[in-house]
Amino acid sequence: MADAASATSGHGEELEDPGRRDFIHIAAIAATVGGAAAIAWPLIDQMNPSADTLALSSIEYDLSKVPLGQQVTVLWRKQPLFVRHRTPKEIAEAANADLGRLRDPQPDSARVKPGKAEWLIVVGVCTHLGCTPAFGEGEYNGWLCHCHGSVYDTSGRIRGGPAPKNLEVPDYAFLTDTRVKVG
Q: Which of 40, 45, 108, 124 could form a disulfide with 155 if both were Cys (CB 3.0 to 4.6 A apart)?
């Protein structure tokens, strides 16, 4: 009789098996989690960098193509990269600058690799509003941003105008005496 009482609710209806109820709850939770993952995955995946960006995350450049006193502009991460072969005069001007008078004080030696002071590599984007400065102009014979008047010296340090910081020096390494890898 006790078995019959446990199988009915008293109104003649049969009660659900607790094992079946647990299975239905687990299946519903699993379906919900699976649906949420199916919706979230495309949103998360679209935040990954595109293949063309990954291909440009680092570049190699042959420095033998840059004569003394000249610079080349190469594209790196969709931005101009200035590769400057500095003259001894430019190096001396940059090294002898009064750091106390600089808005973003940084010695020239911190902006170039040891033993490679003739090579300055900077991102060619003005730190004010992202314009591309021109070389060989301005009071310090470095770069001048014509858009708003920011002036950089031969080490890419801000010397005047509205730009708050120096031109950025990317992470780079010399692979050989004439080959550099940026990024």
A: 108
Q: Which residues contact 60 (CB under 8 A, 6 or more apart)?
A: 175, 179, 180, 181, 182
- Phi, psi (deg, nearest 5) at residue 109: -65, -25
List residues with catalytic annotation. Answer: 148
Domain topology for 53-182: Rieske Iron-sulfur Protein (2.102.10)
Please give the pLDDT value at position 4.
46
Enumerate the β-bridge partners of residue 182. 59, 172
The residue extents of the domains of the chain are 2-45, 53-182
Residue 121 confidence (pLDDT)? 92
Spell out the residues 6+ positions from residue 36 whose beta carbon is closer than 8 angstroms to its own.
none
- Between the two ends of the chain, the Cα-to-Cα distance in Å is 81
Whether the per-residue pLDDT at 71 is higher than 70: the answer is yes
Q: Which residues contact 140 (CB under 8 A, 6 or more apart)?
A: 93, 151, 152, 153, 154, 159
pTM here is 0.66
